[in-house]
Amino acid sequence: MGERNDELLERYQRSVMGVFGLPPLVLDHGSGCHVWDVDGNRYLDLVGGIAVNALGHGHPALVTAVSKQAAEGIHISNLFTSEVQIALAERLLDIAGAPEGSAVFLCNSGAEAVEAAIKLSRRTGRTGLVAAEGAFHGRTTGALALTHKPAYRQPFEPLIPGVTHVPYGDEAALRAAVTEETAAVVLEPIQGEAGVLSPGTAYLRTAREVTQEHGALLILDEIQTGIGRTGTWFAFQQAGIVPDAITVAKGLGGGVPVGGLIAFGDHNAHLLTAGQHGTTFGGNPLAAAASLAVLETIESEGLLEHARVAGDHLADAVTALRHPLVTGVRGAGLLRAITLAHDVAPQLAAAARGAGFIVNPVAPAAIRLAPPLVVTLEQLDSFVDALPALLDACAPDSADTTHTTHTPAPADTPEDPR
Ligand SMILES: *Cc1c(COP(=O)(O)O)cnc(C)c1O
């Protein structure tokens, strides 16, 4: 998007492993729901680092907590503990509504939380795992066995055995797949990476029922849906069930890497015993302080309610456009996908970028929006107002599907903190 950008991307290509492809932008800094690239162009960030930047960029509560903790001590290892780590574990149990005896394992990422969940499931004495088609649970080799997309899995096979993938949302298929050999059923309450697909709360209740009948664990991957993203602390709370365990990460640290496994109830909390699992960084004071600040701010700023209101507002506004290229809006709270009549999501994301909006082409015919939970209705409206022209530029018969003539707002607007 400019000279400095191109220069840096050339250096990127020569030095950074190409697993992410070539990113379109080199970002420089952010403030609230905006980010700026190295050429000074401003963008409304409607992806929030993939549902991570729950408080946006530079939120004073998070900046203060991280700065203070960095000065007092970043890391102590798990040979010791800290008050802030204990407080975070207590707070997570509290917001999860976990019964007495439940416990938390803290780690550094989503995939690590899933690894911990897989090991937890092995402690049932069984090895079978049931996951869903379309599932995304991470890239480490254990989590990858649960992830469904063949392009992610096949180059690394053989992966851990015993995993069955069933069609997502199909209650009969789930019933048929769970047996006395099933250690755990692992499901996302809404599949984020698959394009923001909701199976509905009845499916989660069936999953709870079926796992209970067969003595299997129900492990819900709330890495993307948790921490207020869908309008409640965790998406499973909308189904009125109690899972055996949930995984969390993404939004928890507001951008500071952190993950966690929450095991519900005394039995599940004690499946992994001393020496059976561990991590060097997990739950360190910096990550714990950041996470506590995020959770406190979501509460004090009423962001659960706001996620519901803002998400519904966005969905209604996009639907009201009645644009022929838009077929629907999926998801809940501020985890949404706008579905398209043609496979033009990459073009739409590029056009949006050209107009100063960051969105994610999560599928060929769907763009994902997972903005900071602090996004305002006005900011969402500014995107909805721009959307018809962006869609028109992407119509399959339009002459140029990759660029708009729009230029992003310059950096020297009053909102730029620099
Ligand atoms: C992002 C994600 C993961 C993996 O998290 P990482 O931090 O990238 O390892 C796992 N499960 C779900 C549902 C996710 O959205």
From TrEMBL:
GO terms for biological process: L-arginine biosynthetic process. It comes from Pedococcus cremeus. It is found in: Cytoplasm. Transmembrane segments: none annotated. Binds 1 pyridoxal phosphate per subunit. Its cofactor is pyridoxal 5'-phosphate. The lineage of its organism: Bacteria, Bacillati, Actinomycetota, Actinomycetes, Micrococcales. This is Acetylornithine aminotransferase. PANTHER family: ACETYLORNITHINE AMINOTRANSFERASE, MITOCHONDRIAL, AMINOTRANSFERASE CLASS III.
